[in-house]
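Researcher: Quick test of sequence recovery. Tokens follow.
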């Protein structure tokens, strides 16, 4: 029986669906207010994450930015077969960030970023009609990136960082081939990966700057995953070992970002970003089982590369108050025939608002909120992929993201 093992794919694969799906949003309250347009943004420690080259454009201050974020998705599903409408539980996904940077002298700057860039927590009613596909599915990641930058001149900098990623995934689904609703399968696993982030930053004038950064793809090698089957009838107990060892490789795609920043007036700064995410390595995922009749299970995805466009504006209202607004359009790499309820993805259009208040001479309070709408997606049968577990219907998704943080300079 392939279905229990193939269903594990939906959970583990989503850790590679960055461009649309489960990205927690721009990392940091200031960046969320700008819609994520940050590749050409200098003089902020978040450059360690967005563009290491911009980290070189620093003064002698130690700068720290720390805060928390939360993202909540609200998805509804309208079944094609039953016309029944089901709402996903709206579960906020908490995350956070820490950025720090310091100029060391002789053109060298150092930085550190700790971020939670990819996470989601999907929870459908345990008795819904798609319970044999997924009931609960979650992903959490943490990335730590030490960074070094060098200012070649006062107008040009380069930088690089090493990216350490830890991720863990979980999925719960009912074993639909049995009449008992309490017969289920739970898949869990965790893995670490290493990658790199490089970037360049330049200024053609005091008012116009550009940035280019590349974040490498990474492979999460899940070697100690488990597949646990519960309440299986005795007649089939031999086919569903209560605890089964599972291994798989999950690819996180690389991203290339290009950004421009134009200071229109001394108080108004406009930013634009273009990002291309490479999905070609996530064409398929293969699962390997040590104690199962099915030694391997392979699932094709055939993702397409995806683009994102981000525009942000920052206005210094007075010496103590800054206002921000941003717009984001993010393509989904997921084709209709692979839309699934663990995280139904779609092209995303989002708007952001943000502000900063000076609480002390060197301490700012940052606030931001983003509302996003995903394009309606319809999951359909794919006769060429009969092994794919799915349910047919239409998904609508809305995403709320909020962030609060503090910025210090010493």
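Model:
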């Amino acid at each position: 029986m392939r279905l229990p093992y193939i269903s594990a794919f939906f959970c583990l694969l989503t850790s590679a669906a960055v461009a649309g799906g489960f990205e927690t949003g721009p990392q940091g309250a200031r960046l969320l207010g700008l819609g994520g347009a940050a590749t050409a943004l200098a003089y902020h420690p978040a450059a360690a994450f967005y563009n290491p080259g911009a980290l070189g454009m620093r003064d002698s201050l130690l700068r720290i930015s720390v805060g928390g974020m939360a993202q909540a998705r609200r998805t509804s599903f309208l079944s094609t077969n039953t016309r029944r409408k089901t709402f996903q539980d709206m579960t906020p996904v908490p995350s956070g960030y820490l950025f720090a940077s310091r100029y060391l002298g002789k053109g060298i700057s150092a930085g550190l970023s700790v971020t939670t860039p990819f996470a989601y927590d999907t929870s459908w009613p345990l008795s819904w009609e798609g319970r044999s596909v997924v009931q609960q599915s979650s992903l959490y990641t943490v990335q730590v990136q030490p960074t070094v930058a060098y200012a070649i001149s006062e107008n040009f900098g380069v930088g690089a960082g090493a990216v350490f990623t830890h991720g863990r995934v979980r999925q719960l689904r009912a074993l639909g081939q049995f009449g008992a609703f309490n017969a289920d399968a739970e898949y869990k696993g965790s893995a670490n990966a290493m990658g790199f982030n490089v970037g360049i930053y330049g200024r053609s004038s005091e008012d116009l700057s550009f940035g280019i950064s590349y974040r490498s793809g990474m492979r999460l090698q899940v070697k100690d995953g488990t597949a646990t089957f519960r309440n299986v009838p005795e007649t089939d107990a031999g086919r569903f070992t209560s605890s089964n060892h599972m291994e798989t490789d999950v690819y996180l795609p690389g991203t290339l970002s290009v950004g421009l920043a134009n200071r229109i007036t001394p108080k108004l700064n406009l930013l634009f970003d273009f990002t291309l995410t490479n999905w070609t390595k996530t064409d398929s995922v293969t699962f390997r089982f040590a104690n199962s009749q099915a030694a391997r299970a392979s699932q094709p995805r055939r993702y397409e590369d995806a683009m994102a466009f981000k525009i942000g504006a920052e206005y210094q209202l007075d010496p103590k108050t800054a206002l921000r607004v941003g717009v984001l359009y993010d393509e989904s790499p997921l084709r209709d025939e692979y839309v699934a309820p663990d995280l139904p993805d779609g092209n995303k259009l989002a708007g952001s608002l943000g502000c900063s208040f000076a609480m002390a001479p060197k301490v700012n309070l940052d606030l931001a909120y983003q509302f996003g709408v995903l394009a309606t997606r319809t999951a359909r049968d794919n006769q060429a992929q009969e092994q794919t577990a799915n349910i047919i219907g239409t998904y609508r998704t809305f995403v709320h993201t909020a962030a609060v943080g503090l910025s210090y300079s010493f």
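Helices lie at 3-13, 29-33, 47-50.
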